[in-house]
Amino acid sequence: MSQDTKVKTTESNPPAPSKARKSLPVLDPSGDYYYWWLNTMVFPVMYNLIILVCRACFPNLQHSYLMAWLVLDYTSDLLYLLDIVVRFHTGFLEQGILVVDKGRISSRYVRTWSFLLDLASLMPTDVVYLRLGPHTPTLRLNRFLRVPRLFEAFDRTETLTAYPNAFRIAKLMLYIFVVIHWNSCLYFALSRYLGFGRDVWVYPDPAQPGFERLRRQYLYSFYFSTLILTTVGDTPPPAREEEYLFMAGDFLLAVMGFATIMGSISSVIYNMNTADAAFYPDHALVKKYMKLQHVNRKLERRVIDWYQHLQINKKMTNEVAILQHLPERLRAEVAVSVHLSTLSRVQIFQNCEASLLEELVLKLQPQTYSPGEYVCRKGDIGREMYIIREGQLAVVADDGITQYAVLGAGLYFGEISIINIKGNMSGNRRTANIKSLGYSDLFCLSKEDLKEVLSEYPQAQTVMEEKGREILLKMNKLDVNAEAAEITLQEATESRLRGLDQQLDDLQTKFARLLAELESSALKIAYRVERLEWQTREWPMPEDMAEADDEGEPGEGTSKDEEGRASQKGPPDLE
C-alpha cells in the first residue's frame, strides 16, 4: 500500500475518542432553569443584606451564634461562586438567536461590569479574621455587591407571576422592612457609640431589668426607627449633635420613602384600574347616558345586571382589543388554544383545513345575553351564526312562552344563513325564535368575516357548501329544481361572460393593430414633409431669377450646380 493511500485511510477513519467529555449545558436566560437559579440566589443575597448588618451592630448576636454564622457565611459564598459558574454558562441573544458557544459567552461576560462586581463580592476579606478575630462581620460588606441579582430575580418574577400587582406590593413592603431594619441597626450602633442610657434619646442602659436581652434590644430599636421613618412623632428629643444629624437624615429618608410609597401604590391602583377597563366595558358611561336620556327603570336595571354579571363572573367581550398588541401569528395561536375546540364542534366546519379554522377562530366575537333576551327572531335577516359556549337557549313560538327545543353548550345555530346555498327555500332569513333562558355566552361569526376567510380557501368553500346542502336536504328545505335552474343559469351567465371576454380580447387586438398602422402612417408623412422642406429651402426667389437672366448663361449653370448641391443635402427618401 502506498503512502498516499495510508494518509487517506487515516483521514477518513479518525480514531474515536476514548471517553466523551461532559460539560455543563448552556442555560437560556429566558428559560425555567435560569429563573429557578435566580430565585435560589435570592436567599444568600437577602441573608447578607439583612443578617450581616445586624451582626455588625448587635455584638451579642454575633457572639451567641458564631458557628452558625460561619456556616451560613461560607454557604452563601459557595452559592456566589456557583453563580459565577452559571454566568459563564448562560447564553445571550444575538440577532434573535441564542448563542451557545461557551467561548463567546465567557468573552462577553468578562468584559461586563457584572463580572467585576461578582469578583469583588467574592474577595477573601475573611483572611483578616486571622488578625482581627472572627467577630468582625463588617469585613464581609463586599457581599452587598451581589444585590443586582436580587433585583433581576424580582423583575423576572414580576413578569412571570399571575398576580403582578400583589407581587409589587409585597416587594414594596420588603423594601420598607429592609430600610427600617438597617435604620434600627444604625440607631443601636450609634447608641452604643454615644453610651447607653446617657440621655432619653439613646437606647436605655442594658443594666436595667429587661433591656439586656437581645430580642428587647432589636425590637426597641426597630420600634424607634419605625416611629422616626413614619413621622408619627412621640420620640424623645435629641440632645447631641450626632443625634440631631441622625434625626435629620431619617426625616429626609422618610420624606423620600413616603413619596416612593405613595407613587408605588398609586401605580399599582392605576394598573389595576387599567386592567379592569381593558377586560370589562366601562359601565359608568352607559349609566350616565341612560340617566341623561331618562331610560325607564326596568331597562336600566337589565343593563346594570348585565354589567354586574360580566364583572362578577370575569367574562370578557373584547378579546380582540386585549390581544391586539401580540404578533398576528402568536395571537392566532392564543385564540386557537382557547376557542378551537368550540369551533371544531360545528358540523359545517368539521374536516376543514386547520389553517382555515385558525383564520376563523380570530373572527369569533364573544357575546353575552341576559335572561329572556332574544338572540334572533323569525324572519330576521341572518348575517351571523352563533356557537353556544355556555348557558341554555330555547327555540320558542311567536308568543315567547311555548318551547320547542332547548339548546345547550356546544350546539350552534344560524350557520346555513351565512352561506349562500343555491336552492335554499328559506333564503337568508331566520326560521325560528331563539331566546336565552339564563345568562348565555355565545360566539358570533359574521357573514362578512366568513366570506373574507373563504375567499382565500375556495376548496374549503366548496366543501362547506356541500355540507350545508346535505343539512338542507335532511331538513327538506332545499329546492333541487330551483338549485338545478340556478346552476344552469349561472353556467349560462359564465358562458356569456367568457364570450364577452373573448370578444373584448379580439377588439383589443384589432385596436392595437389599427393604432400601430396609424403610428406608421404618421411617421411616413412626417418624413415626407421634412424631405419637401429640404428640397424647397434652396429654391431661388423671383429677384434671384431676374438677376440670373441678366447675367446670362454662367448664372444659369451656377444655379443648376447649387440646385444639385441642395438636392444632395436633403434627407434620403425613406420610401
UniProtKB/TrEMBL annotation:
Keyword annotations of the record: cGMP, cGMP-binding, Coiled coil, Ion channel, Ion transport, Ligand-gated ion channel, Membrane, Nucleotide-binding, Sensory transduction, Transmembrane, Transmembrane helix, Transport
CDD domains (alphabetical): CAP_ED
Gene3D superfamilies, sorted: 1.10.287.70, 1.20.5.170, Helix hairpin bin, Jelly Rolls
Annotated source species: Saguinus oedipus
Principal location class: membrane
Stretches for region Disordered: 1-23, 536-575
Residue runs in coiled coils: 475-524
TM stretches of this protein: 34-58, 172-194, 244-265
Native organism taxonomy: Eukaryota, Metazoa, Chordata, Craniata, Vertebrata
Signal peptide limits: none
Location of the protein in the cell: Membrane
Membrane-related topology note: Multi-pass membrane protein
Reaction(s) the record says it catalyses: NH4(+)(in) = NH4(+)(out); Li(+)(in) = Li(+)(out); Cs(+)(in) = Cs(+)(out); Rb(+)(in) = Rb(+)(out)
Name the UniProt record assigns to this protein: Cyclic nucleotide-gated cation channel alpha-4
Gene that produces this protein: CNGA4
Alphabetical list of SMART domains matching this protein: cNMP (SM00100)
Domain Cyclic nucleotide-binding: 348-454
InterPro entries: CLZ_dom (IPR032406), CNG_cation_channel (IPR050866), cNMP-bd_CS (IPR018488), cNMP-bd_dom (IPR000595), cNMP-bd_dom_sf (IPR018490), Ion_trans_dom (IPR005821), K_chnl_volt-dep_EAG/ELK/ERG (IPR003938), RmlC-like_jellyroll (IPR014710)
UniProt feature, compositional bias: Acidic residues: 544-554
